[in-house]
Design brief:
The chain is an alpha/beta fold. It contains 15 helices and ten strands. Strands 6-7-8-3-9-10 form a six-stranded mixed β-sheet, with helices on both faces. Strands 2-1-4-5 form a four-stranded antiparallel β-sheet, covered by helices on one side. Helix 3 runs antiparallel to helix 4.
Length: 448
């Protein structure tokens, strides 16, 4: 009975490992079918990690081990030939294990994962393969970065890191993003390149850019949801390396509100407090935190009403409150004013301005920036260059942005960098290069 249970466990582990490996290969632009054969799978992984020689040896050793194991049923028992076949099978097996370990080490580098996963892979392959395959925080961020045949068109210097302030341990939010890459059908494609800037604490920041410029990609990279080839630091702490702790210091409000309509406002915030605040926090402290958030959002006296009966602007405030409850240092909002009229939107952004004034960094995306442009300290402008890569076209104050682009409104700035096919002026390359030249000239990006 015990033998049957062990065999079932091993079978389940192998099936789950195949599923995980299938997804890993798909993430890296390879055919998932290769995961069905261990030797071929290792060879495909070696191509991803640029260890082709190891992959070929592993493929040959796996094939030889399979033949030796299968032939044991046909060789005379208790003979020298049987001993030789057994030794060949053992040597090939250990060779495969050793080479697979080296290849998986390379795979952890590609996915920027802990090398300990490689050792776990040898023992229980299903767990690390499923983690790398299905966990969205693991993305292939180091794929053939130095292959000149796969470098895409684009503007500006290939790497501006030498021209910018390299103090990544200072206060505020430091973004040093070399690139964000995806790979499809064996081809590498850049989503973002050369994003270097520092945002001071206490800043309300507008993230501006046309469709496809990479605003959401940058946000996901900053918060660590999908890592880039980058260094992201918040008040001196590395967001990527200390993600398990840092994620509680970052608040993110998506465009669509995720609320239970039949709950009251205070119940909604109490539930958020229980989830996001330390378990050891006393109830009195937690209640005080909820009360502070309600006052900050200007909903004092309306906290007992049902969420369903609140206006669009009030619902957005509640969504903000759910993230604000943990008192994050960095707060990012995706189109918080979507669907709100001008007056309500203005009130909402005034609340965000007040939150930033407490020393937090608030970054927001909005498609109607001019009605609240005076509230912002900084503007980040992303543009899609001729190689369809998101680049930094400007970072500075709103007044500096108007002067830099020669435009009187934020919306006209977006029109200047949008492609002609989207009704814009198609000047993205011009401004990306202009800002890159200015960065090199000054020796650093615009930042306080």
């Amino acid at each position: 009975m015990t033998d049957i249970i062990i065999k079932v466990i091993r079978l389940v582990d192998r099936i789950l490992a195949v599923i995980g490996c299938w997804q890993i290969l798909k993430k890296c632009g390879k055919s998932g079918w290769s995961s069905l054969l261990p030797g071929l799978r290792d060879y495909k992984f070696s191509q991803i990690t640029e260890q082709n020689r190891l992959g070929l040896i592993a493929l040959f050793a796996s094939f030889a081990e399979g033949i030796a194991s299968a032939s044991l049923d046909y060789v005379p028992k208790n003979t020298g030939l049987e001993f030789t076949v057994i030794m060949v099978a053992i040597v090939c097996l250990f060779t495969v294990i050793f080479l697979e370990y080296q290849i998986i080490i390379g795979l952890t580098r590609v996915f920027d994962a802990d090398k300990k996963l490689a050792l776990l892979w040898i023992i229980v392959p299903s767990i690390p393969s499923l983690m790398l395959g299905f966990d969205k925080k693991y993305q292939p961020v180091h794929l053939n970065e130095d292959d000149p045949d796969e470098q895409l068109a684009g503007t500006a210097p290939a790497d501006l890191s030498a021209a910018v302030d390299d103090d990544v341990r200072g206060r505020g939010l430091v973004i040093h993003l070399k690139d964000r890459i995806v790979k499809s059908q064996g081809k590498k494609r850049y989503l973002l390149k050369d994003i270097y800037l520092t945002i001071p604490n206490g800043s309300l920041v507008l993230l501006l850019g046309g469709s496809g410029a990479g605003k959401t990609t940058l946000v996901n990279a900053v918060i660590g949801y999908v890592k880039a080839n980058a260094v992201m630091r918040l008040n001196g702490e590395d967001i990527y390396k200390n993600y398990d702790q840092m994620k509680y210091r970052i608040g993110f409000v998506p465009q669509q509100d995720i609320l239970r309509m039949n709950d009251t406002v205070v119940a909604t915030l109490n539930d958020a407090a229980k989830l996001r605040l330390p378990k050891q926090m006393k109830k009195e402290e937690r209640d005080k935190r909820v009360e502070t958030v309600i006052e900050t959002l200007g909903m004092k006296g309306r906290q007992d009403g049902l969420v369903a009966r609140k206006s669009g602007g009030q619902k957005k405030r509640i969504s903000i409150g759910m993230e604000l409850i943990s008192d994050p240092d960095l707060f990012i909002l995706d189109e918080p004013d979507s669907g709100l009229d001008g007056v309500i939107a203005r009130e909402l952004f005034e609340k965000l301005r007040a939150i930033a004034d407490t020393g937090k960094i608030v970054i927001t995306i909005t498609h109607t920036p001019d009605r609240v442009a005076d509230l912002f300290d900084k503007v980040i402008v992303l543009a899609r260059d001729s190689g369809k890569v998101g680049r930094l076209a400007f970072y500075g104050s709103p007044d500096e942005a108007r002067e830099f682009f020669g435009k009187d409104t934020m919306e006209n700035i977006v029109m200047a960098i949008n492609g002609k096919e989207a009704g814009g002026e198609g000047r993205a390359d011009e401004f990306i290069q202009k800002y890159a030249d200015l960065t090199v000239e000054r020796g650093k990006t615009y930042h306080a």
